[in-house]
Amino acid sequence: TKTYPIKHFLDNYDLSKEEIQDILSTIIQLKEAAHQNAVPQLLKGATLAMIFEEPSTRTRVSFETAMAELGGHALYLKPGEIHFGSHEAIKDTAKVLSSMCDGIMLRTEDHELVLTLAEYASVPVFNAMTYYIHPTQGLADVLTMMEHLPKGKSLKEIEIVFVGDSGENGIMAMEHAHLAASLGLRYTIASPKQYSISDAEIKKVEEKMQKTGGSLTVTENVEEAVKKADFIIPDVWYYYGYEDEKEERTAAFYPRYQLNMEMLEMAPDHCKAMHCLPANREVEITSEVLDHPTRSLVFQEAENRLHVQRGLLAWYLYPRMKRADDQTK
Ligand code: CP
What we know:
5-stranded parallel sheet
């Protein structure tokens, strides 16, 4: 039985600024090693169980590739393929997978499920996106911003502007709010009133910002918000499950909240466009922006998913592997 303490990766809000900085520094170190074709085999023999209750391209490929690069192995457990939730209690799955694997990754709609899994797992649990937040994507976005800081500005000084849905469907808006709270960043959300971040979330974010030094601005005035933006981030207007609201949602966001060249030109010349992908081209972002040779960071951001997963897995799993080795000496 493994007895050493577990640390899960569930929500960037739960981490301290120092912990996130340390994770980012591991990510950067291993990204440099990858560029030298010299990724150390830190997770030799380790197994990651990856439970996907929702589809994925980037998250699946990046976690699986990162495990392989670090000398480990990843198991893709696709929707409906294992007993999870409906056929077996989450706590039973958590205990069994913990006895066979070194980490468990979960993508699911219900945030409570990932919390329950973590409660009963005795190995680290990684949140690979719920319909509340997307912490691995958040880290990839911060890394991408750090690599493209405007001249003369530090991470703490940049203006990050989210445009679109920050309400119930606003996964990336919420993710950046949690990251901004933990890292003390300057963050603006521009949303139509009926699709705006809740007062409870604003309070939660502002509470942490009192200690970290960040700032949160919430506005409907998207034109004013983007005027100062160093990075503009949209997200989809309707996720799975919201397709029946497509018409009313499109009417609320289009054209004011679409990231198009007109919006980008309202921002400073150096301002970059981001998007976590998959994107609905010509809906929340135009192809002209997404494919822009100098103003878009979308594909650098996607590649950074792999670099983040590699560093994140190493940061969480390697100390436990090391201790397991120590215990056998
Ligand atoms: N951004 C993101 O999570 O992409 P996937 O859904 O393809 O994993």
